[in-house]
UniProtKB/TrEMBL annotation:
Enzyme category, top tier: isomerase
Similarity field: Belongs to the GST superfamily.
Domain GST C-terminal: 180-295
Origin organism lineage: Eukaryota, Metazoa, Chordata, Craniata, Vertebrata
Record-given protein name: Prostaglandin E synthase 2
SUPFAM superfamilies membership: GST C-terminal domain-like, Thioredoxin-like
One Pfam short name: GST_C_2
Length: 295
């Protein structure tokens, strides 16, 4: 299998031999971010849709979340956490010297306990690309552009993502519509699916309210979503197509990946109608579709 560097890196250097498999839930925003990244960079990959009840497809892994990316070049390397996957793969595409195995040493997993005493895994350097000075300069042009990308990637993970569940499960009707979609595109057995649709929708309606409190959202959660969309549009500004300039950077891909999971749902249509995000969103869709069609 041959990989080519994206046009933004200008050369077409095959870095072949790496077979990629993405373990995902299609409707998970973290997984959608990784798919947006792989498609934009034209990295061919297999997808394994994980059953969210038993998760037997990821039985091989002690890390129990998705996305997981398996990169196989003789022996498999497991990449966990959407932002680590994206940073490591981007580093791999640009860096001429480092193997993926070496790159992964720069993203160590740290086990910690959260305020409730639960063990959590944190990844160091997850927004950082492991490039030398020259590669960094070539990719970003300026320190500001590099820092800006990090800032908004972090914003997508720490803020934007938390707006999704409270919005798509906002009312019982919306919760049911969301679960209808999740069950249709997800990997559920027939009985499991029916059960998930009604019990899942009811549960998520209430969990959505809890999440709203936990993340200090406004009572009308749509207002936070609209505000986030317009904050993002303002960050991109009037004079560039994407935050990355004429091409999307990793922050564009992250924000797009997160918002995309709401497509087809009422919250998405209302966000499109009530904010200024539509032109940027449409540019992202067509750019990614064009790239994906090329491989
Ligand atoms: N920080 C992780 C978060 C991943 C995450 O929370 N994934 C959810 C799905 S959206 C998950 O797998 N949760 C465990 C489960 O469903 O059992 C990332 O960026 O990849």
């Amino acid at each position: 299998m041959n990989y080519v560097l994206a046009e933004e890196e200008e050369t077409q250097v095959p870095v072949g031999g790496l077979q990629l498999t993405l373990y995902q839930y299609k409707t998970c925003p973290f997984c959608s971010k990784v798919r947006a990244f792989l498609d934009y960079h034209q990295l061919p990959h297999d997808i394994v849709e994980v059953n969210p009840v038993m998760r037997k497809e990821i039985k091989f892994s002690t890390y129990r979340k998705v996305p997981i990316l398996l990169a196989n070049a003789g022996c498999p390397i497991q990449l966990n956490d959407s932002s680590v996957i994206i940073s490591a793969m981007k580093t791999f595409l640009i860096s001429k010297q480092k193997s993926l195995e070496e790159i992964m040493y720069y993203y160590p997993a740290i086990k910690a306990t959260d305020e409730k005493g639960k063990e959590v895994t944190e990844y160091q350097n997850r927004y950082w690309l492991m490039l030398d000075e020259q590669e960094t300069k070539q990719l970003y042009g300026s320190k500001e552009a590099q820092m800006e990308e990090i800032k908004w990637r972090r914003w997508a993970d720490d803020w934007l993502v938390h707006l999704i569940s409270p919005n798509v499960y906002r009312t019982p009707g919306e919760a049911l519509a969301s679960f209808d979609y999740i069950v249709r595109v997800g990997n559920f057995g027939p009985v499991e699916g029916l059960f998930a649709k009604y019990v899942g929708a009811a549960a998520m309606f209430f969990i959505g309210k809890r999440l709203k409190k936990r993340h200090n959202l406004q009572d009308d959660v749509r207002q936070d979503l609209y505000k986030a969309a317009d904050t993002w549009v303002k960050a991109v500004g009037k004079h560039r197509m994407f935050l990355g300039g004429s091409e999307p950077n990793l922050a564009d891909l992250a924000v797009y990946g997160v918002l995309r999971v709401m497509e087809g749902l009422k919250s998405f249509d209302e966000m499109m109608a009530n904010t200024k995000i539509k032109p940027w969103y449409q540019r992202m869709t067509s750019t990614i579709q064009e790239k994906a069609a090329l491989h």
